[in-house]
Specification:
Helix content is 42%, strand content 23%. It is an alpha/beta fold. The protein has one domain: P-loop containing nucleotide triphosphate hydrolases (Rossmann fold, 3-Layer(aba) Sandwich). It has a seven-stranded mixed beta sheet with strand order 3-2-4-5-1-6-7, with helices on both faces. Strand 6 and strand 7 form a beta hairpin.
């Protein structure tokens, strides 16, 4: 097997595409969003994602994505790099460690937002987030055997440079 990166914008259908590609299971679903009781919108999104997952899947909610990938057997689905970067203090994540874990594991699907299509962020934090996520996406893309872009629920395969 290989590492597959699934990119797309907000509400593009990227998670549903990744879940479909993962199959019925067993799958370890690494959820990088740690739910906050104060965020009703994200809580409802997390609930919708949970409801779509087959019962054979195991869910691990963690910010230690590389550690969760290393500890998993079978197929891994990481959803998403966007919330992983966004949840890290100063957006400081170890993309190299994640990439090593993904390569060593070998059977993984990784979801992330493509933030380069949006407007130029108006704040310093927004620009740092966009830049960091863009670099993380490039790092994972470099080790992925397949990169998909999801737009309006449609899938485009991206060729290597």
């Amino acid at each position: 097997m290989t590492v597959t990166l699934v990119l797309g914008g907000a509400r593009s259908g990227k998670s549903a595409v990744a879940e479909h590609r993962a199959g019925a299971g067993p799958v370890t679903y690494v959820a990088t969003w740690l739910p906050s009781p104060d965020d009703a919108d994200m809580a409802s999104r997390v609930a919708a994602h949970r409801a779509r997952r087959p019962p054979a899947w195991t869910t691990v909610e963690t910010a230690d994505v590389a550690g969760a990938v290393r500890a998993s057997t079978g197929r891994v689905l990481v959803d998403s790099l966007t919330t992983w970067v966004g949840g890290a203090r100063d957006f400081a994540v170890d993309a190299d460690s994640l990439c090593r874990a993904l390569v060593d594991h070998g059977d993984a699907i990784v979801v992330s937002d493509e933030v380069g299509f949006g407007v130029h962020p108006s704040s310093d934090a927004g620009r740092r987030f966009r830049d960091t996520l863009g670099l993380v996406n490039q790092a994972v893309s470099a080790i992925a055997g397949e990169v998909l872009l999801v737009v309006a629920g449609r899938v485009l395969r991206l060729d290597p440079a």
